[in-house]
Amino acid sequence: PQTRSKWRAVAEQIHGPTFEIFPERADPNKAPSIYLTPLTDAAKRTIGFDANADDLRRETMALARSTGKIAVTKPLTLVSDRDSPRRSVILYAPVYQRPTPPGDEAERERTYVGAAFSPVRLDDFFRFADEKMIGPSARIRVWQASDGEAPVALY
Prior knowledge:
The chain is an alpha+beta fold. The protein has 5 helices and 7 strands, in the order E-H-E-H-H-E-E-H-E-H-E-E. Strands 3-4-5 form a 3-stranded antiparallel β-sheet. A two-stranded antiparallel ribbon has the order 1-2. It is globular. It starts with a strand and ends with a strand.
């Protein structure tokens, strides 16, 4: 886990001295958004957001860290979409001190640096898939399921 001071030092090199981690919370373990591309106006609202402040994001990153595999959130609203909520998911890929994920969970925990993430706005993604890949003669339905949990309709 990275602390506020560690993240602040890295982020200030990129975004300058006005960088802030939000929301403010007592837990010293932070996972702020620092590297974003493309840097749109919506993306700029996300810089500094502490993903560990949200249970769903934190749990999904923990799953990615412990398994060494990409993990996907349940549907949520992106920080950048707070003003106009849209159903989205976030894919988290764990990042370790070396390119290949360690073989055992204890080593993955020890060498974990953070996570790379990719938000997916479900309406955009599936509209594109429907129009460009599937065509008018077929329809798709997509569900997300975790072990022991009821499936959630995504589209």
